[in-house]
Design a protein that fits this description.
Elements: E1 2-5, H1 8-11, E2 14-16, H2 22-34, H3 39-49, H4 57-63, H5 83-91, H6 95-108, H7 116-122, H8 126-144, H9 148-169, H10 171-176, E3 183-185, E4 188-191, E5 197-200, E6 206-211, E7 229-233, H11 247-256, H12 258-269, E8 272-273, H13 274-281, H14 285-297, E9 301-306, E10 309-314, H15 316-323
Parallel strand pairs: 1-5, 2-6, 6-7
Antiparallel strand pairs: 1-4, 3-4, 8-10, 9-10
Helix pairs in contact: 2-8, 4-8, 5-8, 6-7, 7-8, 11-12, 12-13, 12-14, 13-14
Pfam families: HTH_20
Keywords: DNA-binding, Transcription, Transcription regulation
Protein name: Winged helix-turn-helix domain-containing protein
């Protein structure tokens, strides 16, 4: 469980980032390449990207193992969310930060010996740091740059929604809806997390960083002395990485009908109520309810009652119909 402790000053110092952070997306997308979760959303992207990665991607796999701790310095704080600014901040990482993070990496992954360049990095060798910057640059160019407009579009949509929520109901509502696990009881925000972790803001405020490639629980730095950042996942379209009017989705529309296919995709994006479903699919609520009933009868979605609402989720059959082949690509180089 992650617990973030606020003071009254911290609520006035919350900042909602308006754009994806390229270096956070580099880090988190590298996990998506090596973990099977989220295949319905990332499967096509994995298959397209994994064969094209340069050997330098192994640098990222050393600094960010597929599970557990990844070095904090890969995602610099206090810089504008641009690739150039992030790379420059990474290039200027203090030697103390490098040494401490790599020592933490070794302690938490004792079975993964560090290569020679990583040992040089602990001493602040500028050539080793250049190796890391080059690996991040090459990875971004291959794995993210071709898809950056789609990533930005999805994050923009989340930012617009949260900005409206902030204007109408305040930060409390924004914090409580960051993730399904979020519980806000002033002065503590609780969220799902792989381990018990407490962050005391102590007047420093908090940056809320939306992320396209964050999957499952939100994430943050291990070092609580760093400027506080909470990275949280945004909703995604199933076909975000596909060209417009992809043949597979045309086939689904031909099979189910355009409206029913749109309703199924809207449910598959994330669990939703009938009202939310109508908004996502841009159909009247009566149409959303009717189409949900038809899809439920076909075992393509599942509906369950929660208090005074009905929540719809896509079944494995519904996801498979939308996504087609679910086979995973070759894993990220180790």
């Amino acid at each position: 469980m992650l617990r973030i402790h606020f003071t009254s000053d911290d609520l006035a110092r919350i900042r909602l980032a308006s754009a994806p952070d390229p270096l956070w997306e580099v880090l988190l997308s590298s996990f998506r390449l090596r973990r099977p979760s989220g295949a319905a959303y990332f499967g096509d992207w994995r298959r397209a990207v994994a064969p094209k990665l340069a050997p330098s991607a192994r640098v990222l796999s050393v600094l960010a193992p597929p599970a557990g701790y990844a070095v904090d310095f890969l995602t610099p704080v206090g810089v504008e969310p641009s690739l150039a600014a992030g790379l420059e901040a990474l290039r200027r990482t203090p030697r103390t930060r490098l040494r401490n993070d790599l020592a933490e990496l070794h302690d938490r992954h004792p079975g993964r010996p560090l290569p020679a360049w990583a040992h040089a990095l602990t001493h602040g060798d500028p050539r080793a740091l250049t190796t890391v910057v080059g690996a991040v640059t090459a990875y971004f160019a291959t794995a993210l740059e071709p898809y950056w407009p789609q990533v930005r579009r999805q994050v923009d949509r989340d930012h617009e929604w949260r900005t409206r929520a902030l204007d109408t109901t305040g930060w409390e509502a924004v914090l409580a809806t960051l993730h399904p696990s979020a519980t806000w009881r002033y002065p503590v925000l609780e969220l799902a997390f792989p381990a018990d972790h407490d962050i005391h803001l102590d007047g420093r405020g908090l940056t809320l960083q939306p992320s396209f490639f964050c999957w499952g629980a939100p994430t943050t730095f291990l070092d609580t002395a760093l400027s506080p950042v909470l990275v949280f996942p945004v909703e995604r379209s199933l076909d975000w990485s596909a060209p417009a009017h992809a043949p597979r989705h045309q086939a689904v529309a031909a099979l189910l009908g355009k409206t029913r296919a749109r309703v199924l995709e809207a449910v598959a994006t994330a669990p939703c109520t009938t009202t939310q479903l109508a908004e996502r699919a841009s159909v009247p609520i009566q149409t959303a309810s009717h189409q949900a009933a038809v899809l439920r009868e076909a075992n393509l979605i599942h509906s369950r009652r929660h208090r005074n609402t009905v929540v719809h989720t896509a079944t494995s059959l519904g996801m498979a119909l939308l996504h087609g082949d679910m086979a995973l690509p070759p894993f990220f180089p180790q």
